[in-house]
Amino acid sequence: MKYNSIISGFLFLFLASNVSAQQIVQDAFVRADTTQKKIAIVFTADEFGDGAAIITNALKQENAKASFFFTGKFYRNKDFTNAIKKLKEDGHYLGGHSDQHPLYADWSKRDSTLITQREFRKDLRNNYAAMKRFGIHKSDAHFFLPPYEWYNKEIVRWTAEEGLQLINFTPGTISNADYTTPDMKNYRSSDDILQSVWNYEMQRPAGLNGFMLLLHFGTDPKRTDKLYRHLPEIIQRLKAKGYELVRVDELNFPTPKL
Fold first, then answer.
1. What does the pLDDT look like over 30-41, one tens digit per residue?
2. Torsion angle of the four alpha carbons 154, 156, 158, 162, in this order, in degrees rounded to the nearest 10
3. Considering the domain boundaries, does residue 230 fall inside one?
């Protein structure tokens, strides 16, 4: 858990810098058509799922769809079985996030891949094998979101060779910092995170059009300021601004290069 927190901290610091989307994108989809007022809220999970009830209820009450990318470990965890079945029953998108949540590439030397293609393939296929238990197949989950939201061109290519399209969250806000805990130097409160989202929306000509806004399905108990508790407020405000909340497969992306 400590190792995961350190890695996540490095990722947050990188994405919170002034790095442009063009610099981050390496043939993965990070944003859809910016002329369409559609947004996809994307949740990831590996270890924690404490937001399940609040998230599913909020989406149900607001008649909104979202996308969920879970690791194989999460899919196999019996504590989350009912929540996953409920998400599928409610028509949300369920996808893969690797099986064991490995780090694919070096943080400072991004071109340095840390796993072999054989290891990547085995891990990915184990993720989809766990999803199959819930009746989710590759044809249902064409989009794959990498662990730690970190990848390089080699990972994009290997993903394509598995018949999948790599995607990542849209940079520009600090919504992905909702995992941080008060003991971390990069801790961000829910108020700080929400302000970053609304500031981005107001200051950019295209607002949040085509955005994939990443949140976590659950977080460390040390974080008591849970961003997912603000989901009803987030959805209502987005709707008031005219956004349509959709699944990732309902966004308009370029034709995949498979």
1. 999 999 999 999
2. 180
3. yes
